[in-house]
Amino acid sequence: MNSQVLIVTGGGRGIGACTARLAGSRGYAVCVNYLRNRDAAAGVADEIVAQGGAAIAVQGDVACEAEVVALFERVDRELGRPIALVNNAARLEPQMRLEAMDGARMGRMFAANAIGTMLCAREAVRRMSLRHGGGGGAIVNVSSGAARYGSPGEYVDYAATKGAVETFTIGLAREVAEEGIRVNGVRPGFIHTELHAAGGEPDRVERVKTLVPMQRGGQPEEVAAAILWLLSAEASYVTGAFIDVAGGR
């Protein structure tokens, strides 16, 4: 079994895939979780293995409690007890104003983005906490600049879910700080990923980049670097904190 096991939810694309690859290059055994695109997740895992690392691709809907439990149990069996978790999986639906949204959409958004983050963190705490016989660990929750700006006219529901993730991050960090677990977040700004296509505007970053002081969108690799720092021993005295990766916005 491996001693440095990391689970990355939504690890087959964008920020998640870059995080998984970078972690693999730094010696982590990586579980690349995915919802639907098995080929993309398996491709990321294969890249890590080809470079001499250990990785598996595991399907699982983070919005489903039973599937989250099954995901962690499979990692326990095939890689070992996780000491790191990156809650990256997120759902985004087409841009619209609040009055056009129905409750079902809101429920889907919160189930995946907020409750999914909490369920995965719960399973991680059960394994990492000194209170439960674990050896400690680190959790990084991927938020969004939307939590601060609200995404008016586009997806206020998505922004609200990320606000919930940030409140949860602070609370959990304080809850488990004495148990060897650090919990932090990253707050990406306008990043070039496929997620924007789910919102109905694949080229959104190009449209809004003038709002960024650095006058460009970010790359997922830049977010991954911040995530890996928060997971590392270099951040050993950092918990309940957020790193903005947003070009100064």
List the helices and strands and how they pair.
Blueprint: E1 5-8, H1 14-25, E2 29-34, H2 38-50, E3 55-59, H3 65-78, E4 84-87, H4 103-128, E5 137-142, H5 146-149, H6 156-176, E6 181-188, H7 195-198, H8 204-208, H9 220-231, E7 242-245
Parallel strand pairs: 1-2, 1-4, 2-3, 4-5, 5-6, 6-7
Describe the structure.
The protein has about 250 residues and is α/β, with parallel strands linked by helices. The protein has one domain (about 5-245): 3-Layer(aba) Sandwich (Rossmann fold). Helices cover about 45% and strands about 15% of the residues. It contains nine helices and seven strands; from the N terminus they run E-H-E-H-E-H-E-H-E-H-H-E-H-H-H-E. It has a seven-stranded parallel beta sheet with strand order 3-2-1-4-5-6-7, sandwiched between helices. Helix 1 (about 15-25) links the parallel strand 1 and strand 2. Helix 1 packs across helix 9 (about 220-230) and helix 4 packs parallel to helix 6 (about 155-175). The longest helix has 26 residues, at about 105-130. The mean pLDDT is about 95.
Task: Write a concise keyword list for the protein shown above.
15% strand, Rossmann fold, alpha/beta, 249 residues, 9 helices, seven-stranded parallel sheet
Gist of the model:
The chain is 45% helix and 15% strand. The protein has 249 residues and is of the alpha/beta class.
Helix content: 40-55%
First-residue to last-residue Cα separation: 42 Å
SSE string: EHEHEHEHEHHEHHHE
Radius of gyration: 17 Å
List the domain count as a whole number: 1
The best one-word shape is: globular
Class based on secondary structure composition and strand pairing: alpha/beta
| CATH class categorisation | Alpha Beta
Number of helices: 9
Major beta sheet, specifics? 7 strands, parallel
What fraction strand? 5-15%
User: In the CATH scheme, what's the topology name?
Assistant: Rossmann fold
Would you identify the CATH architecture? Answer: 3-Layer(aba) Sandwich
- CATH homologous superfamily heading: NAD(P)-binding Rossmann-like Domain
Adjacency order of strands in the biggest sheet? 3-2-1-4-5-6-7
Poorly predicted runs of 5 or more residues: none
